From TrEMBL:
Domain annotation Cytochrome c: ranges: 190-282
Protein name: Chitobiase/beta-hexosaminidase C-terminal domain-containing protein
The entry's keywords: Heme, Iron, Membrane, Metal-binding, Transmembrane, Transmembrane helix
Listed transmembrane segments: 12-36, 42-60, 81-101, 113-131, 140-161
UniProt keyword Transferase present: no
Lineage: Bacteria, Pseudomonadati, Bacteroidota, Cytophagia, Cytophagales
UniProt keyword Cell membrane present: no
Originating species: Spirosoma profusum
GO molecular function per UniProt: electron transfer activity; heme binding; metal ion binding
Highest taxon above the source species: Bacteria
PROSITE patterns: CYTC
Amino acid sequence: MQKKLVNLAEQGLFASVVFILFLLVFENKIAIPVWLQPFGRMHPLLLHFPITLLLLAVLMEAFRFYKAYAANESYRIFSRNLLLVGSLLAAVTVIMGLFLSKEDGYTGSVVQWHKWTGAATFFLAALLYWAQQKRWYSRVVAQTGSVILGVILLSAGHYGATITHGADFVLAPLTKNQTPEPVDIQQALVFNDVIKPIFEQKCTSCHNPDKLKGALALNEPEAIQKGGKSGALFVAGKPEISLLLRRIHLPVEEKKHMPPSGKAQLTPTEIKLLALWVKGRAEFNKKVVDLPATDSLRILATTLFSPTELTEPEFAFDAADDETIKELNSDYRTIAPLSKNSPALSVNLYNKASYSPEKLQELSPIKSQVVYLNLNKMPVHDADLKHISQFENLQKLDINFTDITGKELNQLATLQHLESLALSGTQVKFADLKNQIATFKNLKTVALWETGLTDAEINQLQKAYPRIQFIAGFNGDKSEPIRLNPPQLGNSAIFATSTVVQLRHPVKGVVIRYTTDGTDPDSINSPLMDNKMVITGSKSIKAKAYKDGWISSPVATFDYYKNSYKPDSSTLLLPLSPVHQAEGVKSFFDHKLGTFNANSPAWANNWLGVRKNDLVLVSEFKKPVSITSVELRTMIEPETSIFPPSLIEVWGGNSRDQMQLLGTAHPAMPIKGSSPVLKAIGCTFKPHTVSYIKIIAKPLAQIPEWHSNKGNKALLLVDEIFIN
């Protein structure tokens, strides 16, 4: 490197030491502005390069005093320059990391270890560089410093990987390939064996003591009950108002949706289990088998401990003759192999009018091959069970909604392979089941929904025969309803003269009710959305989806905006924020509405922002227009220092140089604890015919005292301007 360039680099290295020391000493008093956050987020992108350079530099430094290299001037210069460049890049990486650590979610012991080992890496590299020119710099100092720097550098990398990938990232391929110990259903706990694994797979990478995103940890019951920055995680017994479920049910593109977009999402079954757990008062110590037999959580959870058999079952009997099967098939009876190349047969009988016990007896030529018999809704009586008992290898019997009373169930006890017995919708009695079920040696499941048995009686059966699962939880009101998604907008929200309000829902049979007065819709009094309502002005509509047997959707708000005029040309007189430029001035009139999702590329493509100066826009209409109002659609998110404008002025006239003030507005400022909102704000005035208008919006000069960024200028964001 040229001497002048080396001198500049050394000065930069010294300045970096001072700046990083300043950041470390005063980190609790420093707030990183939004426009600087993207610089901090580049930390993971850059860090690998200085790691590589520093590792190579310390390796060369360790061999510097060996005879083969000691007299090699090129080796010494290259090693020194490599250490200088690596140190400078490490400084940039450390500064980025310190900026990034100020964002929400970077707390915990691992973050602290990563921060200090990263800073120590930089300081030690800088010290090692300056020590090279000292007289006391020797082989021992060089090798000792290189070893220490290498160890600290690897430690910083280890803690960084733990933050991004989890504590077990390195050993995961070894540990996760091991076959987990099977969980005994009799000992399984609802939280430890059903709910906690969901948190571990989908949540704890960001919500653990080492990385407390939102000040929330989901690794232990105590932390889960404590909640986080946004409050309690759940309200026991009320999943519909619990923060956990509300965040899960947000659209994936929403900023606060959990898990975040890009992460592995929860499956419908996992969401269902979490909702049922909260509805059951979020017990942490209850066993699965302690739940009622009809409980939906128990039924779903039990399936987790029943691994699917991946191999084809083997049967000891030979296949039936093809011609015999062909002759026995008819319009009211179908016989088919259980699977390809399997000797086992499945038999289904249809048509009540054609059924008779003889139809069962006719199957005697294939009695050894029948493993599944479906008599659902056939007029089967207790006396017919003796004909069913001939199928010696029968494994599954469906006699749902038949005329069975259960008094002669013991006739089926000879079926040594029977595992599943479906008795739903029959007149079976508790006493008959209790007395006869013990004779079934291999029975695993009994379906009993829509029978006369009470929940208490089914619970008694479950306790008496724990090896059998008594299913009675999927009928009508006994099953857990599913919550509907919110309605969706069916057409553009921006119109010129009038539009038809169109809301839709992906689930068939859903009705949508709405209000226009700001109140929440209800299922009785609020009008039905028929997609015929015509509006001629801006309007806010609240809507909910309803369907029998489902939990109603959350309230969704849809804002329709009228925009009568689009300028022929527009010019910004003052610069936009470097971070929030969207597609320039044309974005004000492109009918693309921004969403929250701050700091994402999609968000940046919709919003235009100013902070250091006013937003000043001049627009021209080649044909004069009569206007009475101007509105700016703004984002208001106090948490991230985004506030509405403190003042809006609208000027108009027939020439660019001679315009008069048409109207002003002083928008209300949010107070502490205000929720984020997307809102059109502006002013109205008497009709004026103009060829030019000038819109001035002033950012809030001083953020209020209650805010963590108090005294600084607020960011003003606008995505659309409506002229009417």
